[in-house]
Amino acid sequence: MMNKREETGFTLIELIVTMAVFVLVMVAAANILTGMITQFKQQSKIAESNIEGIVGLEILRQDLAHTGYGLPWSVDVDGDGVATDWPQLTTYNEANGAGSFNDGSPASAQPLPAGVRRAPRAILNGDNIGMNGADYLVIKSVSAQRTNATERWAILKREPIGADNPWTWTPAGENLQNSDGVMVLDVTRKLTVNGTAFYTTYNNLALFAPTDISEQSRIVYGLAPAAAGTPRMPFNRADYYISRPADISPRCAPSTGR
Question: Which pTM does this prediction carry?
């Protein structure tokens, strides 16, 4: 009599059911993982936006705290003692239209009307002025931009006759570079000019220094260069935009800008 070896295993139906269950479990796990990754990315973006917002608000706070700092109040181009010569300062190229938001900004870059030059205003703003309905803020001061030159200042004073250097600048160690553009103000915040030039370079202050030791000291501020390499305004400025682009994420709150 022969012994038959009993064989055991899974039927094809059992294998198909097991594989279907396994696939369903994998799909569910993948969906959960995808949701977790999406949520992680969203939270990372939120954290990044919050950090950038804090940094941006701190920069804005500093600019607001220094609004108007070091701006010239007057200028005497022709030396007649009347410090109302802004129209004669032809090298001052910032557009400054009367009665409109026209300050040479990218949102409203229009040429300067004849005879409209004036002492710079410390702050300007406009709502829905272009650039996808951007709100726009201009803050002017000598410290509004953060460059090696704009973070430096010096005092220009006349030395006694016979001194090796006819003028000196203090405090020491401010590290303005010889090629840095600078403007010079007296203590009454009158802009010192040479003809119609409102700026000079740090190594070329002779014509902007007091003429004798009885004159008051003058203050030298670093200027941010324009694209051409020369300053176009007797101050520095910071421009802030809040635009509402059409492609803003639908997850953002209504009226959100960037």
Answer: 0.68
